[in-house]
Amino acid sequence: MRRIIIAWLMAAPGVALAAPVALTGNVDAGRVEFARCQWCHQAGPSARSGFGPQLTGIVGRRAGMASDYRYSAAVKNSGVVWTEPMLAAFLRAPQKVIPDNKMRFWGISDEQRLANLLAYLRTL
Ligand code: HEC
After folding, report:
1. Which end of the chain has a smaller Cβ tally under 10 Å, C or N?
2. How many structural domains comprise the chain?
3. Over 80: is that where the pLDDT of 2 sits?
4. Range of the domain at 88
5. Phi-psi sector, 96: left (phi>0), alpha (psi -120 to 50), beta
6. What is residue 22's predicted lDDT score, i.e. its pLDDT?
7. Angstrom distance (rounded) from CA 52 to CA 64
8. Do residues 33 and 19 touch, judged by C-beta distance below 8 A?
9. How far apart are CA 120 and CA 69, in angstroms?
10. Which ligand 1 atom is at minimum distance from the Cα of 104?
11. What is the CATH number of the domain that holds 109?
12. Residue nearest to atom 8 of ligand 1 (CA)
């Protein structure tokens, strides 16, 4: 398994997992944040799954639904719906929200960056 360590995305201890994102996000700043996700994810009208599933319309989508992607059983059977609070919790600490998922990503600990990213994900 290829491991990609994303040093700038270290999870800070003590971040409340299920807390909603209280800050207002900026879509343009979120687009910049999304560049990191694009190492593994595509989104948009012609998006296809690659190393990770495509994320078009991810807000409100059920987990494990990209038809051209082979998910881990952990995601496929999670029963998660990607509401904004769920996405926020997952992006803070992916392995705590869906243990054994195969997204190699450390989590976003900066709440403003998370709010920006969610604002952008909403537009997809
Ligand atoms: C190193 C590659 C990588 C990076 C970087 C990455 N992801 Fe992922 N992501 C994955 C993989 C692989 C999966 C599938 C996990 C599984 O099936 O267990 C996934 C799954 C997901 C899912 C669940 C999708 C679904 O259809 O249920 C979401 C949401 C998600 N990623 C969002 C993001 C966001 C937002 C970012 C940027 C902040 C990001 N990811 C960064 C690899 C990555």
Report:
1. N
2. 1
3. no
4. 22-121
5. alpha
6. 79
7. 11
8. no
9. 22
10. 1
11. 1.10.760.10
12. 103
Which residues does residue 81 pair with via DSSP β-bridges, in sequence order? 62
> Is 34 within 8 Å of 44 (Cβ atoms)?
no
The verdict on residue 30 lying in a domain is yes
% of the chain beyond a pLDDT of 90? 78
In a domain, 85, yes or no: yes
What is the DSSP code (8-state) at residue 120?
H
d(CA 53, CA 56): 9
Determine the distance separating the centroid of ligand 1 and the alpha carbon of 103, expressed in angstroms. 5
| 48-76 pLDDT per residue, tens | 999 999 999 999 999 999 999 999 999 99
| Rounded Cα distance, 24 and 10, in Å | 22
> What CA–CA distance (Å, rounded) separates 68 from 102?
16
Distance 77 CA to ligand 1 centre (A): 16
**What tokens does 114 get?**
């998370």
Measuring CA to CA, which residue among 89, 102, 107, 98 is closest to residue 11?
Answer: 107
Domain-located, residue 7:
no
Which residue among 4, 34, 54, 105 has the greatest number of ligand 1 atoms within 8 angstroms of its CB, and so is best to mutate?
A: 105
